[in-house]
Amino acid sequence: MIHPIPSGTRDVLPEETREVRAITDALRAVFERRGYGEVYTPALEYESVLARADMAEARPAYRVFDETGAVLALRSDMTVPIARVVATRYAASAPPLRFSYFAHCYRGVRPQRGQPRELLQAGIELIGAPAPEGTAEALTVLCQALDATGLKGYRVGLGDASLFPALMASLAVPDGRRAQLLEALVLRDFVALAEALEQSGLPAPDIRLLLDVPQRRGGPEVLADMPAPAGEALTGLRQVHQLLDPEVASRVIFDLGLVRNIGYYTGAVFDVYDPALGTPIGGGGRYDELLARFGRSLPAVGFALGVDRLHIALAGEERGTGALLAHGAGAGAGAPDLAGAGETPR
Amino acid sequence: MSATGGLTIAVPRGALFDGTVDLLAALGVDTAELRANDRKLLFEDIGVITMRPSDVPTYVESGAADLGVTGKDVLLEQAAQRPGEGGREVYELLDLGYGRCTMVLATQAGPDPALEALRRLGVMRVATKYPRIAARYLEETGRQAEIVEVKGSVELAPLTGMVEAIVDLTATGTTLRENNLVIREEIVACTARLVANRVAHKLKAAQIDALLARLRELPAAARGRGAGEPV
Known about the structure:
Shape of chain A: globular
Largest interface: A-B, 46 and 46 residues
Distance between the termini of chain B: 40 Å
Strand content of chain B: 25-35%
Number of helices of chain A: 13
Strand order of the largest sheet of chain A: 1-5-6-12-11-10-7-9-8
CATH superfamily of the largest domain in chain B: Periplasmic binding protein-like II
Strand order of the largest sheet of chain B: 2-3-1-4-11-5
Radius of gyration of chain A: 21 Å
CATH topology of the largest domain in chain B: D-Maltodextrin-Binding Protein, domain 2
Number of helices of chain B: 10
Oligomer: heterodimer
CATH architecture of the largest domain in chain A: 2-Layer Sandwich
Shape of chain B: elongated
Number of domains of chain B: 2
Order of helices and strands of chain B: EHHEEHEHEEHEHEHEHEEHH
Structural class of chain B: alpha/beta
Helix content of chain A: 25-40%
Number of strands of chain A: 12
Low-confidence stretches of chain B: 224-231
Largest sheet of chain A: 9 strands, mixed
Mean pLDDT of chain A: 88
Strand content of chain A: 15-25%
Number of strands of chain B: 11
CATH topology of the largest domain in chain A: BirA Bifunctional Protein, domain 2
Radius of gyration of chain B: 19 Å
């Protein structure tokens, strides 16, 4: 007899739970040590409250009516609920405020793609700490937390959500074109970006710049010979980098084309990569305008890690296989395990 | 270090295979075995895995391959159809120029049966292997359509009266003509594209950029210019 569960959800049995618990315990110890108090919030919120944030692609996907007819939604992240907590429960508290969480969030999926509907996120929110110091603290806690789990090969891609829009503004890209160019970048489609730029009638050097800058990624050298128009966002990235301890700084890859598909990010944004997994393990960034939507204007920064993805990456590193390890340059460790490689996060 | 900098590349079998293998050869990859053995799937020595074109985004998205070559038609069919819907999360890096063909709407020659169906029945029936591209195009052009997904020869569907129109990819139009079908509308031009895994694009940036630079330096004959507008 089969009693199915919805695709994208799963039961976690004791052996896996023990491994997951070891990971969350390691993360929790770091969050606590750095002063990030753990909070729980309801999985169900009023839809109208969650809708105050601009969630774009990560907006809540599941809604129910309560007994009075009000619309409830399953949260799709923890950043928005914590913004609500700060505005309502900490309305008069002096910043900065530090919170951590381990919570299930709920996202819509496309069928047959191995995407999770329910995902366990672990993360922090640092409220009331502006850039660059707040950003540097979040990145430091991120690296300490990942180190504590035993993950070895990870890197943090660091970009700035305001960089490309600022570049477009300073090069006087016509207003009507900007959304189109940004959309191509969000879709990671450099062919469409090139085509849109060619039709834009902009001067050739500007076109080259708008195509070149978002493809720059690597060490601090990618910031070095940047043209003036990208100025402010780059200054911000440099300041963050200077505040980082060497072991954290060595994990950072600058990625000038990094954009997040969640609308509330305003400044620095980051993604966590590990060669054992073909998709980011987590990410975060600054959301300096989100709190104001809940009535308490404070700059903020945070990150969320997908615990299941982190688990897969740890297991992949342990085996010496996993997405990019199996065939990667200099991998050379036995025959590539095609069946195990490229495992989609559950 | 191999000619592709140790990167794993997903190569599509089928119509794009020869162009892709020629490109690899132009980059200095030893393609003899790849050309000779059409059953083998994994060519570790040269960092190549082969598969059908529509599987390329799947392998690249998961990281089983760092890079891949596939048609724009495949990418459009698997792309997000509306905001908020997740498409394939791969980077589209380069229009490789070859494998040029056009996604078209075709119906039987003579008076357009699709127009008649729309006028009298309010809806046209359309057979296609690209249901998402077809549905989106017809929606955007304001026509009600019933999309019938078929896996094999699409040309058969209007000949048997099952549908009034087809949406399909055509390079020369020969198969359409042989089946008494005429192109009524061109939807989008498609060429081969180079796509990259999200994580590889960051962690193997130097190798990928070096490969891109070499691809861009190849003579224009190896990779033409120009590509279709997204539908």
